[in-house]
Design brief:
335 residues, mainly alpha, elongated
Amino acid sequence: MASASDTIGAILIGALVSAVLSGTVTTQAFIYFRLYGSDDYKRNTFMVSLLWGLDALHSSMAFASTWIYLIRHWGDDTVYDFIPWCLTVAFTAIVTLISHCFFAHRVYVLSGFSWWLTVPILVLAGGRLVSALVSTSEMMTLQSYEAFVDRVGWVFTMGLSLSTAVDVLITLSLITLLQRSRTGFSTLTDHLIDTVTLYTVETGLVTSITTAVSLICWLVMPRNLIFLALHFSISKLYATSTLATLNARKSLRRRTNKLDDHVLPVISSLHDIQSHTQRDPDSRSVSTTAYRRSRCITRVESSKAEQNDSSPQSRHRDDDRHRWCSLEEDPLPPV
C-alpha cells in the first residue's frame, strides 16, 4: 500500500468534507419540512426522511472508519491495507439508488409515461446497487485492499461506471424532454424551461463528475485510498441534488403565477378582483368582500335600463336587489 498521507490522510480529509456536505443535506431537509411539512405527497416526505437518516448513518460510518484508522490502530503500519467493517459503500449505493429512482420518475412523467426511457435507467441503477452490495460483502470478507483489488476490483469499477452512465442518461433525457416542451416564443414558459434545464445540467454534472473522478482515481491509483475520500462525498451530493430539486418547486410555481399579472388588458374590475384573490391568499377575505360589492354594483347598474319602468314589478325587483346587496356585504347580523 501507499504512504499514510495517501491512505489515512485521504480518509481524514474525505470524512471532513463529507461532514460539511452533510450539513448541506440537513439544511435542505429543514427547508423542505418548513416549506411543505405534511402538505406534500407522503412518498416525498418519506423519501426526505429516509435520505436524511441514511446521510446521518453514512457520516457516522465515515467517522467510525477515521477513528479505527487514527485511534484504535495508531502506530500500526499494517492498518494501511486494512478494511474496517464500516458500510459506507453500501449506504452510498442506497442513497444513489433513491436519487436515481426519483429522477427516473421525473423522466417517466415528462416523457408521457413512457417505459422505454424509464426502464433502462432503473435497470442500470439496480445494477449499480448490486455491484456496490457485492463490493461491500467482499470488502468485509477479505478485509484487505490488496486482495480486494486483485480479486474483485472489477465489480467496484462496474458500480462506479454504471452510476456515471445513469447520471448522464438521466441528464440527457431530461434536457431532451424539456426542450421538446418549448413553445418557440419568448414566453414565461420558455424561460421556466430554460431555468429547469440549466438546473438539471448543474445537478447532473456535479454528481457525474464527482463519480467519474472517483472512478479515475480508482483505476489510476488503486493502491491508495484517494478514491474512497471522493467516494465519501458522492452520497451527500446525490441527497443534496434530490432535496434541492424538491425544494425548488415553490419557487417555480411563484414564477408561474406571474402569468396572471395583467398579461392581457383588464376588461373589468371583476376580473381584477378575482385574479387578485387567487394571487394573494392572505387578503382573500378583503378581496372577497370587494368582489361581493362589485357583484352588487353590477346588478344595480344592470337595473338602470329598467329605471323608466315604474311598474310595481320593477319596484319589487329593485327592492330585492338592494336586499340581496345588503346580505352580500354583511351576510351575518352583528352579535
